[in-house]
Amino acid sequence: MPLRGSCPSVASFPNPNVFSKLPLDWPLKERVRLGLLRTIAGLSARCAERVMFVSEDSAHWIGDALGLPVSRRAPIPHGIDTSLWSKAPDTPLHPNPYILSVSSIYRYKNYVRLIEAYAEIAKRQREMPDLLIIGDDQDPDYLKEMYAARDAAASFAENIHILGEVPYAEIQRYYAGASFFVFPSYLETFGIPMLEAMVSGLPTVAADIPIFREIGGDAALYADPHSTPALAKAMEQVIFTPGVAELLAERGHERVMNYNLERTVARLLSLFNEICA
Q1: Which of 19, 154, 217, 262 has its CA 20 to 30 A from that of 57?
Q2: Residue 6 pLDDT class (50, 70, 90 cuts)
């Protein structure tokens, strides 16, 4: 590994699990892996001229965890190519109206609580859309908990669909057909699905954590991710309170313009030019 100053270098740490102090109860093998990654990341950070982060929030808390001077932190948020999402496909992939959540399955994605919140609303509201959860399985133990939560929903279980991984080419069609989007995760360094939802014109409900506030601003409805009733209340507002869904969709369309892909590329080029100079 080159010593800092021997050649220009940039490191990047987008994985929140490596630095999080949240009690996630990972299996031993995963705890060992994350510990090794934490050590390697610390060494890499000391050698790099700059450390790139995908948000202001992650630059703050991961930078602090690394003991990294603010002057060496480079927050450059992800961007989205809005032109690729400008025409919504009109072929539905699910026969009923549905609520959508998209992200790889890990325990911090909080899907069990989302399923519980959905079941809570369904008990008191007859006209409930289905719930679709899309994401590749990266945490088999937690996936079992998700299926158990679905089974516990009893008569509403058949309306909860855990689809697993789907081809990315189909993701846009799932967004296009959804009633609204929910992002219940309580640990993230960014959250690209939130951009995808906003650019698709979807109202969004998100966990009330700093990174989602940073991305969504006033274009999302936020809820305590550790409270099933709070998450249920926010989702219920979007479905049944007149005007809320339309307002959030309009604000999201404006908000996502702040994350134009060209702007991200320009900031990356500026960082690289600065380092090379």
Answers
A1: 262
A2: low
